[in-house]
Fold this sequence. Notes:
Two copies of one chain form a homodimer.
Chain A: H1 11-33, H2 38-47, E1 53-54, H3 55-62, H4 66-78, E2 82-86, E3 94-98, H5 100-121, H6 126-154
Antiparallel strand pairs in A: 1-3, 2-3
Chain A binds a DNA duplex through helix 2 and helix 4.
Amino acid sequence: MSHVKKEPSLSVIRELARTFQAFEQLSAFHIRQMDLTPPQFDVVATLGNTPGMSCKELSEKTLITKGTLTGVIDRLIEKGVVSRCAQEQDRRSVMVALTAQGEALFQQVFPAHIAYMKTAFDLLEPADMEELCRRLSQLRAAFNQVLEQKKHEIE
Amino acid sequence: MSHVKKEPSLSVIRELARTFQAFEQLSAFHIRQMDLTPPQFDVVATLGNTPGMSCKELSEKTLITKGTLTGVIDRLIEKGVVSRCAQEQDRRSVMVALTAQGEALFQQVFPAHIAYMKTAFDLLEPADMEELCRRLSQLRAAFNQVLEQKKHEIE
DNA sequence: TCAGTATAGTTCAAACTAGAACTAGTTTGC
DNA sequence: GCAAACTAGTTCTAGTTTGAACTATACTGA
């Protein structure tokens, strides 16, 4: 997680890791009470209010890699929450969508979780959060840029 | 990861998850080239320049839970990088420390990784990063506070 | 002193994770 | 028109993750 010690510029990383972990703990604590795992919740939340989408699209939105997604979806199908359905136009692709039961689950579980997490955000000023967003976005851009650069250097 | 959609105040979460993931990808890309996993690197980095520490302490510093740590340390012992050694004063506790070979690995791998990650931070202003740190810390405090509160409510 | 309680680590089951190799289908360029 | 390159998903392996149950040891208070 932290991958670093106390070098000056890198205390950001420590803070980032610890903050993300604190979010995950709070979020997962609630999600587990609703009999889902965090990745399962992510998939249900992402499919809610949509006609369904391909694994690729789902993978991009949830940040779950395609290999992992196969297993997560398998387990959601066992629970009767989502379904897979072949595509006409591109036969490699699979459409994943909520079942009626999954739709009901989404309606029950998604607003409840938003409300739950909101109790944390209510402790903070909206302006501060906007500022945080902007700065996180800068940092993310730097990581992505360097990753691309380093990947090219390898060849 | 994201666990949320586009509710106004919660875009922070999206940004937090994506930024953290970008960091992990960049960091792991380098760590894998050095034949370590991110948790293994974390343990080596945390033990470097110390006389060793208990699993509990190691767990707190690395954010790796104790159950996971057992396995990570098992694999590092197989690699000959760390050692476990029983304690006199508290026989429940185990001291984990780098071996000579682990010390050498640390010297080689840790500065290299700091330098690697620094190429990303060099793209940013130090003042911006300090500001980011402060705001992350606020957010983390809010998550932790609500988690404690919610845990109490359960009983 | 000794029962109750707390703590340090390990073990376990179920799930997730990444990347790499693979299969099957699609697109491109010559 | 067809080989080469690309893309979508699945499968695989090794490792990590969590919480919970368990073992062994240490502490605490009547």
